[in-house]
Amino acid sequence: xxxxxxxxxxxxxxxxxxxxxxxxxxxxxxxxxxxxxxxxxxxxxxxxxxxxxxxxxxxxxxxxxxxxxxxxxxxxxxxxxxxxxxxxxxxxxxxxxxxxxxxxxxxxxxxxxxxxxxxxxxxxxxxxxxxxxxxxxxxxxxxxxxxxxxxxxxxxxxxxxxxxxxxxxxxxxxxxxxxxxxxxxxxxxxxxxxxxxxxxxxxxxxxxxxxxxxxxxxxxxxxxxxxxxxxxxxxxx
Length: 237
Known about the structure:
Number of strands: 0
Largest sheet: none
Number of domains: 1
Strand content: under 5%
């Protein structure tokens, strides 16, 4: 059996998306494939970030409620470990660990140094958690900035093919020009279809992660204040 018999039958009058792809030049097909892959990739990153950032914010709310509920620091610390899946909890655990170690081995007049070390540890944890949440955003930025130009490449090649058909057939009617122009515009549309969502997702999650990073930093400052108060209470007791 002739393998070409299995291929979809595409006529010059057919302007469906499948027909535009099948009729396209090899390079244009490669461009379309790259753009389709980039679009799927950007949506995959966006979905992952949606659950990552959204889950981190909801879990942080529970920790903040426990912290401000009046529970002793030891009770909150007892439920939090550095291996926790919660970003805010790992920030708290970093400061709490330094506080425990400093209080266990430090002299009474070292309380200021203990708080400074705990604050520094939490700052490092905030930066680490922020970098972890930002992983993948560069992919969205690359897709948003590059896919319009990749689509433009397909557009240029499609238009060049149209002019070649005009020269070969010696005709300029719409029947000759339309298929190549349609393929070129389809490549442009695919580029925009990949770039626009990627740009929207990049801006949204960059803003959300920046706000959450600031929220973690504020929480770390609040923890430092509370630790300082606890150390002074113990020293005055």
